[in-house]
Amino acid sequence: MVATGICRSDDHMISGQLALPLPVILGHEAAGIVESIGDEVTTVKPGDKVIPLFLPQCGKCAVCKHPESNACLKCKLTVPQGTMQDGTTRFTCRGKPIYQFAGTSTFSEYSVVDETSVVKIDPASPLEKVCLIGCAFSTGYGSAVNVAKVTKGSTCAVFGLGGVGLCVIMGCKAAGAARIIAVDLNKDKFAKAKEVGATECINPQDFKKPTHEVLKEMSGGGVDFSFEVVGRYDTILSALSCCHEAYGVSVIVGQPPGFQDLRMDPMLLLTGRTWKGAVFGGYKGKDSVPKLVADFMAKKFPLDSIITHVLPFEKINEGLDLLRSGKSIYTILTF
Ligand code: CND
Ligand code: ZN
Ligand code: ZN
Question: Counting ligands in written order, which one lies closest to the CA of residue 284?
Fold first, then answer.
């Protein structure tokens, strides 16, 4: 591993939002160099620069063969196993097993991944930047261009201006949205949001009315596309309600807290809204990640604007504190 980002999903695991077999090595957004391969591996070789894929692409299952989906059946998204696809874990500590996370476990100098969970990228790419294509960038950008399919001239609302939310804004802008309204409780996030393409920023605490009402008024009846990039039930419902009742599309990107159900009024959908969600921005990793890296190298989108801190791996806890306090966008840890 050469560089890894700290994503909010790693912190969600620490706080126990999703049950995981423990002890575990977290981390799922990284870039590195292949050290060695198994006998039957053909798509990567030692020395290749690669990005691990927290969502594998086996290429053979019904999901991989479907043109519009990416949650490969080799990945048990909702019931994490904490192992390789063969059911083993390759980490141990004093003889006891340490579980793996999302098939990647990038908070480690070395990891073992299935061939379906890693892809070769341009050898010239800067690993301390393109590691963000392993999660944040692809998740956010793809949620706009692949999942919502944002249209030219449309109005979008993005709830949550962390690293992933900022990449949603970049995707909306690239798709030609005319208005991008950014929503966050932390106004310190607004300058960055504007830098990457937001046209307006609002803080729900500045209004007496519910946020979805404010957004409906601002957009003359409801936005075309809305994105929840926080991971909370109230913002998921607010994002759904703020999109136009007849043709609005709302996408869940944030990871909601586990162990609970969400109550919603089905009338919100009966009138014509579309409610969607996706992991990794709808991208199939093996096919898309090398292309996204090539697009980055061709300067089609920036990653510098979302990297606020670079720390040595030993300072991982400082990086997590920066995320929790809202002071960082993305912290990259280097090995
Ligand atoms: P990060 O914590 O950096 O950003 C969340 C933002 O939401 C912060 O700026 C908060 O201030 C803001 N916020 C908090 N509460 C509210 C609220 N009530 N209203 C408006 N804004 C609020 O997180 P991140 O950008 O790294 O990740 C965002 C979510 O995306 C998070 O839930 C993460 O687990 C999830 C995610 C999903 C996927 C996927 O594949 N779908 C991949 N990676 C991360
Ligand atoms: Zn992530
Ligand atoms: Zn598959």
Answer: 3
- Residue 238 belongs to domain with CATH number: 3.40.50.720
Nearest-CA residue for ligand 1 atom 44 is 9
The amino acid at residue 93 is C
The C-alpha atoms of residue 311 and residue 320 are separated, in whole angstroms, by 11
- Residue with CA at minimum distance from ligand 1 atom 7: 160
How far, in Å, CA of 51 to CA of 48, rounded? 10
Q: Does some domain include residue 72?
A: yes
96 phi, psi to nearest 5 deg: -100, 145
Count other C-beta atoms under 10 Å from residue 99's C-beta: 18
Residues 148 and 268 in one domain: yes
Helix/strand/coil (H/E/C) assignment for every residue in 152-179: CCCEEEEECCCHHHHHHHHHHHHCCCCE
pLDDT at 225: 98
Nearest atom in ligand 1 to 277's CA: 41
Same domain, 196 and 147: yes
Nearest CA to ligand 1 atom 20: 184
> 7 and 68 in one domain?
yes
Cα–Cα distance between 27 and 253 in angstroms, integer?
18
Q: Calculate how far, in angstroms, residue 29's C-alpha sits from the geometric centre of ligand 2.
A: 6
- pTM for the structure as a whole: 0.96
Are 320 and 258 in a shared domain?
Answer: no
7, 131, 156, 172: the catalytic one is 7
Residue 77 in this model has a pLDDT that exceeds 80: no
The tokens of 155 are what?
Answer: 């109005």
277-292 per-position pLDDT tens digit: 999 999 999 999 999 9
pLDDT, tens digit (0-9, with 9 covering 90-100), for 122-146: 999 999 999 999 999 999 999 999 9
Segment 24-34 mean pLDDT: 97
Q: How far apart are CA 104 and CA 208, in angstroms?
A: 44
* In a domain? residue 58: yes
9 in active site: yes
In this structure, the chain runs to a length of 335
What domain range is 222 assigned to? 140-278
